[in-house]
# Entry
Amino acid sequence: MTKKSYDYIIIGAGSAGCVLANKLSADSRKTVLILEAGPRDRNLMIHIPAGLYDAFQNPKINWNYLTEPEPELFDRGIEMPRGRVLGGSSSINGMVYMRGHPKDYDHWAKNFGLTEWSYSHCLPYFKSCEDSDRGPNSWRGTEGPLKVTKGSFESPLYDAFLESGSQSGQGVTDDPSGFKPEGLSRLDSTKRNGKRASASTEFLWPILRRTNLVVEVNALVNKIIMSGNRASGVEYIIRGEKHTVEAEREIILSAGAINSPQILMLSGIGPSDKLSKLGIPIRNDLPAVGENLQDHACIDMSWACKKAFPVHRVGKPLNKLLAGVQWILTRDGLAASSHFEAGGLIRGNKNVDYPNLQYHFGIVGYDRSGKNIGIQQAFMLQVDQLRPLSRGRVTLRSDDPKQAPAILFNYLSKPDDLRELKEAVWKMRELIAQPAFDNLRGSELRPGIEVQTESDIEKWIRKSMDTDYHPCGTCRMGYGTDSVVDPKLKVHSTEALRVVDASVMPRIVSGNLNAPTMMIASRAADWILGNCQLPPFEAKYDFH
# Structure
């Protein structure tokens, strides 16, 4: 049974919430309640790496958001899945472990005045969170809860990809989170022994027996209850029944870049002019709540593969069954890989200070028709635009917490974003045209070799551009009226309330957001508990 009060209430059991629950409940004298809108993570497809496509589309564990019509994308609404399950999006993502580039965090420190968020301050927390099979060194840790494994699935396609990085001059690196963060590489995955390592399995499952920790699932938060300017409790619904619970010390909002600003605004914390129109009493006029929305826009190209490999036949029912049986018996085989085990950071032009594009290389092609995905004898290359200039927002449609907020990213609203994606097309074609692929490369399937002129490429990008599902920035940290939380993630002009998730990023980082979100949560836990931060560490890097 849920008690009437806890020392700490965490809203959201995703990448941040699970880390917070682990660290805050380590002291048996502190009571912790974590509220998750979705169910427990019992679905088998969550834990099978190759099952990510099924988990990703499962409406029982996914918020299934759709953006507003995007003006620069022919008014297309873009699907924006977010995890609604223990582990949050770490339970349905592609499992790629990337930290972003060290210069991302140094940019936060220099350009936003967030001096305690330079990479030297963040690196010790990245290391403390992870258990990397690369072994301990200046850049990597091996004593943390999160199992991180270097890609090891063998395929001539991965070999050709890395060799092509050298031949093209786009570069190769042994570890994108190590000494040389630029270049093509075998990527790290959040998995071990053929099984997904989510925030839930690594940070929450091991501590579920703690008597001072309560996990409530299927708990939809209506609002944070305010007593004056203090966050004093949470109102939520389970199975149609309304509950309220008080926080003796703090409430930590870790519901993600979409839901965290939604919950703040439902609680009366946000832009007063917009909230007043919905009849929501104003508790704290913070115009920046929901603003500064960012994401990694992405495009992907594919080529027919001259040689057929076993992975190309996995879509057949019998082969899929055999792969599943092998995984159950041995945790090995085709089902033990997401088949996106290579990628890296590159520069789209010579004028950027550090890589502005990210590859994910897949050794199978796909043909998507609605919700159905067909496997092709092909390989694909996806590229993310890492630091877009376009900004969007999350706003409320009504005061009903069950109604999804309005989400608009404004993709490609800045001309430089479109230019960088056009450069990405040329870079992908340059890479796959290298001799390393000569015995493997068939015809270009998507977009097709006929798409050549700048106008044709631009039209194709607007028509087919998608997202890598990395929303952030809607509760950005800083000091001015354009921010929501301070550098220690406390909501401005509000007591006992923090936001701890990807929404606090002032500018998106150059890589997948799962690992950075866990790092942010680990740092926040030490501030909440009054612990000293881990000492900064200046590692050496090859920046050229």
In short: DSSP finds 13 helices and 28 strands in the chain. The chain has a mean pLDDT of 96. The radius of gyration is 22 Å. The first strand starts at residue 5 and ends at 11.
